[in-house]
Amino acid sequence: MNYTSLNSLNGVIVRESAIDGKGVFATRRFEIGKTVIVGQIEKYAVPNSPYATQVGIGRYVIYKDPVPMLNHSCEPNCGVVANQTGAHNFVAIKNIMPGQEITIDYAMTNYSVDYLSTPCSCGSPKCRKYISGWKDLSSEIKKAYLGLVDPYLIEIDSRGSILSNVK
Fold it and tell me: What range defines the domain where residue 116 resides?
């Protein structure tokens, strides 16, 4: 069985994306709260490199496919939940229909996104115009993302930021 058919059995497939290059698309419906993709670490990576995802303070990984093909959106349909392996599961925060692109906000995992210097092309009415990390988000967005981001981001903020009284 090839990569494409294996992932389509799990409800996702990689194909061309209007957002950027290739993207991950649903081949079936995902209800709010359902796991869309279980993240599996392929290898550890250097900070802020392309396709690297932050999984803790100073810890970066490259995920196995199809996670590296997830595109950013300022209005994503998936959030992240840390799993028992130290990786992230990608969970629907909106109902996702077959054919829809699976997206996350890269700020849900990365404190900073220094390697991306291109403008955001997500096309959302809520587009921030650039891809940013957690440190650059407004307090309003951070509050909306509680429970949908890697816990280390909340830990950093609880050391003296706007979220210390929200937990």
Answer: 3-158
Q: Residue 45: helix, strand or coil by DSSP?
A: strand
- Residue 113 counted as domain residue: yes
Residue-wise burial string across 21-32, b where 16 or more C-beta atoms lie within 10 A, e elsewhere: eebbbbeeebee
pTM of the model: 0.86
Write the single-letter amino acid at 151.
P
* Neighbour count for residue 131 (Cβ, 10 Å): 25
CA distances (Å), origin 67, targets 5, 36, 42, 53: 16, 11, 10, 10
Phi-psi region of 70 (alpha: psi -120 to 50; beta: other; left: phi over 0): beta
Average of per-residue pLDDT across 4-22: 79
- Residue 70's domain is classified under what CATH number? 2.170.270.10
Domain count, the chain: 1
Evaluate whether residue 166 is within a structural domain. no
Angstrom distance (rounded) from CA 81 to CA 98: 22
Sheet holding 59-63, edge to edge: 41-45, 59-63, 52-56
Give the pLDDT score at 164: 42
